[in-house]
Amino acid sequence: MEKLQGGVTLAQGFMAASAEAGIKYSNRRDMALVYTEEPAVFAGTFTTNVVKAAPVQWDRNLLWEKKKVHAVVLNSGIANACTGQEGKDLNFFMAQAIADQMGILPDQVLTASTGVIGMQIPKEPVLKGAKLLKENLSQDIEAGHRAAQAIMTTDTVSKEAAASFKVGDQTVTLGGMSKGSGMIHPNMATMLSVTTTDAQIDQELLQELVRDVVSDTFNMISVDRDTSTNDTYLVLANGLSGVKIEKGTDAYEEFKEALMYVSQSLAMQMAADGEGATKLFETHVINAKNKANAKMLAKSVITSNLVKTAVYGSDANWGRILCALGYSGVNFDPEVIDLILHADGKQLVLVENGVATDYSEEYATELLSKDKVTIICDMKEGQASATAWGCDLTYDYVKINGDYRS
Q1: I need a surface site. Which of 30, 173, 324, 395 has the fewest CB within 10 A?
Q2: Which residue from 280, 300, 246 is spatially nearest to 392, judged by alpha carbons?
Q3: How many other CB atoms are found less than 10 A from the CB of residue 32?
Q4: What is the DSSP string of 2-13?
Q5: Could you tell me which residues are beta bridge partners of residue 141?
Q6: Per-residue pLDDT reduced to its tens digit, 271-304
């Protein structure tokens, strides 16, 4: 597998565009389009929140009906959630606007929205944006980058990842983009993510792979313990590489590895860009009894507000980590656990067999001051492992969310 620079336009046949539509923001891109002339099968996972935005409901219906699609249209600024029948009608209006521009059917257009809950999307900016999106459509890498920027809300950076692999003399490429900075929590992190690939793959197999990959990537990140109404992860495959992905083949394993890489990279970028965050905080649980336990333990640590504030303050308050492990719902022996701090290629054992070591507080603070901080929790009761990603909790998180609607 080769890691690539770029995003959704790298796979054969996929184009992207962005537009300043003026849906809520002024003088910034707020609509994006991903498009393929060759119809694509698609797979997806969506928010587990009972309150589901209109675009989530639309996309899920298209998935259940196993539709092939040509496009994904996304907007930022307004989430089109909790908007009743009018919101559903406006979501269809957005799909129709793109369909009219591209000469396709509305049910060949997936939709995604992010932003303020409860507001209705105005029609005129949507029509303006649809026209501009068609005009700006391009296969170049920069078009993909601009599309990733257009779906940002409180994000401080755009998020892209891509990879390719060879099967004989043919190349399969996957490229993705995502947004997400706040309202991010496991079970579909507000995140939107689109990945494109030119692989040829059956829709049911792609859906199976997407579920598996999400379980170890997007469902293992948290910023603030809030699960959004709009979480959407879509993977489109148009088959233009000519490489067929089937179970039991080397191509299948290569494809899964590449999809895992793209998803994990996007997930980690989202965690690192958590609202107000200054650090990426990673928890790696090793030697747990089973995979389910390892996941629960890792998530419990990265979602603890007390742990997150300690990471922000560069305070090696390991008692908070043990506490978070203890209320995770997993039974374990706290008197055998090791806690190891990793940062910048260096490590420091904080706890050995459940008891603090004679570590240097100054050195611990130095390591905790790095941009990426990892805590390894060695449970010493099995061979299973899991990793979860989060960020520190800062004053700025409160400031950002205190005036989000304004």
Answers
A1: 395
A2: 280
A3: 33
A4: EEES--TTSSTT
A5: none
A6: 887 777 789 999 999 999 999 999 999 999 998 9
Distances (CA, A) of 40 to 30, 194, 308, 329: 25, 13, 41, 41
Q: Which two three-digit tokens encode residue 344? A: 């910048």
Q: List b or e across 184-208, with b for residues whose CB sees 16 or more CB atoms inside 10 angstroms.
A: bbbbbbbbbbbbbbbbbbebebbbe
Q: Are 186 and 23 in contact (CB under 8 A)?
A: no
Contact residues for 332 (Cβ-Cβ < 8 A; gap 6+): 288, 289, 293, 297, 325, 379, 381
DSSP code string of 182-218: SS--SS----EEEEEE--EE-HHHHHHHHHHHHHHTG
More confident residue, 221 or 111: 111
State the amino acid at position 304 in one-letter form: S
Burial status of residue 59 (CB atoms within 10 A of its CB: 0-12, 13-18, 19 or more): buried
Query: In sequence order, what are the residues at sequence separation of 6 or more whose Cβ sits closer than 8 angstroms to the Cβ of residue 395?
Result: 276
CA dist 41 and 47 (Å) reads 21
Q: Could you tell me the end-to-end alpha-carbon distance of the chain, in angstroms, rounded to an integer? A: 44
Spatial separation of the C-alpha atoms in residues 11 and 301, rounded to whole Å: 37
Contact 76, 150 (CB under 8 A): yes
The answer to whether 126 and 115 have CB atoms below 8 angstroms apart is: no
Active site (catalytic) residues: 190
Counting every residue written for the chain, the total comes to 406
Q: Are 374 and 385 in contact (CB under 8 A)?
A: no
